[in-house]
Amino acid sequence: MADLHDELDELPLAEPFEAVLVEGADPPAAEPPVPAAGGPLERAHALLAAHPVADGYSGLPWALRHLPWYDLELGESAVDTDVPRLRRGHVGALFCSLHLPEGLAADRAVAATLEQLDLVRAVIAAHPEGLRLARTAGQVLDARNCGRTAVVLGPATAAALDDSLGILRVLHGLGLRILTLAGTSWASEAGLTRFGEEVVREMNRLGVLADLSGASDETVARALAASKAPVVCTRSAARALRPHPANLPDDLLAGLGAAGGLCMVPLTAEQTGPTVRDVADHLDHVRAVAGPASVGLSGTYDSGAAHPQDLPDASGYPRLIAELLHRGWSDSDLTLLTWGNAQRVLRTADFTAKAAQQRREPSTARIAELDA
């Protein structure tokens, strides 16, 4: 055995390994820099791995209508959202907007909304390894546990109802979960009419969330009083910091918090500012006024809006969470922000619907009867 050891000792040491590049092959991709151990960005990734982001607004459906071909599974540079970027950003749920561009004829609203809804369902079916349709809070959780991004249908524009509660039920049957109360005769600058309040009651019975972003202050106040389920603002920041019409004043933010609602702050330069710090300022303000249980996130990607620096697409959420960690946000408040608050609102809407269906039949009210 001693002779064998002597022979092994005399063997030359192996040369350091060097990758050999085959002629014509692509060079190896550079490894991303590893954050310092225990740094804010590393902590942000760890937190989001356990508590991913529920993104309150994505304009992806309308953006995809204008592309002749796309592949969201491998990556699509023509849009801000695809499966690889959703994974890098730790997005566990995505609220897909069915909103229509301004100026679309009212008589096309129903058909255009159905077309977008059909498109989203087709996209989900074509990307089963990355996306999964979710109708309930339980299905959102199941999708996350299976490593998929849960896709929630909505918000849709109120014009898509064509003033018909029957159409609301049809849309709900197709998967709609959120409806924006704005831009109609029954949800206007004057607030909710009697028919508008009946729409809210029927939404509560079905489990469709009321979205109040872009609604008048009067509509917001009345919806907060009329709805038995929590309401959401899918893309609203603090008007005290930036006077955008879709942002909320402090009194409505406080009312939203008192009612258990959810303000999902958008990542847009117009509403929140051009930097990550500006977005964090709005999140600080909404948390202080409405409470940590009433603040969430809304990427608002693929909506045509400009986005803050370092938050250009759906992969940027860890940078924002790192900024909040740097500001001293607790892990408990961050888990509410990213996932807990949205899950609570969806779950409460489901419970409210089950209770309401035992007490109330489907409404047959007509706008001509209530708002005459």
Features:
372 residues, alpha/beta, globular, three-stranded parallel beta sheet, four-stranded parallel beta sheet
**Ends: how far apart?**
104 Å
- Sequence stretches where pLDDT stays below 50 over 5 or more residues: 1-36
Structural class estimated from helices and strands: alpha/beta
* Pattern of helices and strands: HHEHHEHEHEEHEEEHEHEHEHHEHHH
Oligomer: single chain
Across the major sheet, the strand order is 1-2-4-3
DSSP, total strands: 12
Anisotropy-based shape = globular
Strand content: 5-15%
Chain-averaged pLDDT = 90
Helix segment tally: 15
Q: Please give the radius of gyration in angstroms.
A: 24 Å
Indicate the percent of residues in helices. Answer: 40-55%
For the report, how would you describe the main beta sheet? 4 strands, parallel
Commentary on this structure:
The protein is α/β, with parallel strands linked by helices. Helices cover 44% and strands 12% of the residues. It has 15 helices and twelve strands. The chain has helices at residues 2-10, 40-50, 60-65, 83-88, 109-126, 137-145, 165-173, 194-206, 217-226, 250-258, 269-272, 276-290, 317-326, 331-359, 367-370, and strands at 53-58, 91-96, 131-133, 149-153, 156-157, 178-180, 187-188, 191-192, 209-211, 232-233, 262-266, 295-298. The strands form four sheets. The chain has a four-stranded parallel beta sheet with strand order 1-2-4-3, sandwiched between helices. The longest helix has 29 residues, at 331-359. It is globular and about 60 Å long. 47% of the residues are buried. Residues 1-36 have low confidence and may be disordered.
